[in-house]
Amino acid sequence: MSTTLAAPASHELVVKHSRFLASAAPVADADAAAAFIASASVPDATHNCWAWRIGDAYRSSDDGEPAGTAGRPILAAIDGQGLDGVAVVVTRWYGGIKLGAGGLVRAYGGTAAECLRTAERREVVERAEVDVECPFADIAAVHGALAAFDAEKLDEEFRAEGVRFRLRLPAARLEALATHLRDATRDRARVGDP
Q1: pLDDT in tens, 19-63
Q2: Which residues touch 162 (CB under 8 Å, ≥6 apart)?
Q3: In whole angstroms, what is the distance from residue 68 CA to residue 49 CA?
Q4: Mean pLDDT of 133-140
């Protein structure tokens, strides 16, 4: 089971008169990461460096800082915290004193790491979609099972022979739902792939 952020977070650090502001948020896909980066970037700042990780996919940018001194340390902070589905932007306002490559790595990586370390987290629950078909007489049994199995009804289609539901629920609860509905409907409800 992976962990992501429960809500956006930020952290500010000043290093030798340069101001670093880390902004982090949970993201579901590359488009959401790009939208967050665009919204968190400050146009009049010196640099807006960023990184994101979603599963095996990741990207990072040094945004004009020396290669490897900003984006990769931010990505390392995400990975070091064991997070997934997260984007981080570290905005820098130059303060007039050069930090050197090592100083930049520490400042960008450290600001991102502290932001993520103090952020509220939540577990990422893998969800599955499933179709459930049942006669009209068993609609109440299906509706009754929704809350018990943390299932969300995505669609409900009435047919001549009964009802077809499209449900989304935690993948780990799928087998238990199928067993429950089989027992509750005397094997009249059918659970199958969408």
Answers
A1: 999 999 999 899 999 999 999 999 999 999 999 999 889 999 999
A2: 133, 134, 135, 136, 138
A3: 11
A4: 90
The dihedral built from the CA positions of residue 93, 90, 30 and 57, taken in this order, carries a sign that is positive
Task: Note if the pTM is more than 0.90.
Answer: no
Q: What is the CATH number of the domain that holds 59?
A: 3.30.230.30
Q: Residue 28 sits in which domain range?
A: 2-124
**Is residue 135 domain-shared with residue 117, that is, in the same domain?**
no
Q: Are 134 and 194 in contact (CB under 8 A)?
A: no
Alpha helices (runs of H) in the chain, residue ranges in sequence order: 30-40, 71-80, 100-118, 139-148, 174-184
> How many domains is the chain built from?
2
Structure-block tokens of residue 78: 């995400």
CATH, residue 153:
3.30.70.240
